[in-house]
Design goal:
This protein has about 200 residues and is α/β, with parallel strands linked by helices. It is built from five helices and seven strands. It has one domain: 3-Layer(aba) Sandwich (Rossmann fold). It holds the Pfam family Cons_hypoth95.
Length: about 200
């Protein structure tokens, strides 16, 4: 995988092959960040990366100047790799080894942007729970955005604060925001690409 933009644009990162991950593809990541770039100034953006895996998304935010970044994953190998990579690039990333649901129950800090990439095999109720916990526990700033990566078999558009969805290949990204008048994302709702 490679960093697409920012200070470390073009740098390749090679995680160990034995990590239990399914990294977001470079194509999907580039499309995702093009959307985010239209709505945020990355510099100083507070980011929470859930089910962080290799840290792929965290590094992309960090390369663009986002900080602080908290990366949460339940696998020790993933957390060790994120810690090692953050140190190598001098990224402001704090890796936390934790079950994501336990983390969301206890965590009190709010963020400008939250990204979650749960295992595609997670059941529908668990995907729904992630969204509900984040909004109920006040983890997203009022003008912030949350994105969940999922498969076509896990619809999320029935949930409160759903804004719009995009699809790239087999990956779907559902965007969530607090409702507000004059929301500049309204035009993008239901603008998913067909597979």
């Amino acid at each position: 995988m490679r960093i697409i933009s920012g200070k470390y644009k073009g740098r390749r990162i090679s995680p160990p092959k034995n990590l239990p991950v399914r990294p977001t593809t470079d194509m999907s990541k580039e499309a995702l960040f093009n959307i985010i770039n239209n709505h945020f100034n990355f510099n100083g953006l507070k980011v929470l990366d859930l089910f962080a895996g290799t840290g792929n998304i965290s590094y992309e935010f960090a390369s663009r100047g986002s900080a602080p970044i908290v990366s949460v994953d339940g696998d020790f190998g993933c957390i060790r790799f994120i810690k090692q990579t953050a140190s190598e690039f001098d990224f402001d990333i704090t890796p936390i080894k934790s079950d994501v649901f336990k983390f969301l129950e206890k965590h009190k800090t709010s963020y400008d942007f939250i990204f979650a990439d749960p295992p595609y095999g997670l059941d529908q109720a668990s995907f729904d729970k992630i969204v509900m916990m984040i909004f109920e526990n006040g983890l997203l700033e009022e003008d912030g955005m949350m994105v969940i990566e999922h498969s076509k078999y896990t619809p999320l558009n029935h949930l409160p604060n759903f804004s719009f969805q995009k699809s790239y290949g087999g990956s779907f990204f559902s965007f969530f925001e607090f409702e507000s008048d004059g929301n500049d994302l309204e035009d993008e709702e239901d603008d998913s690409e067909e597979e």
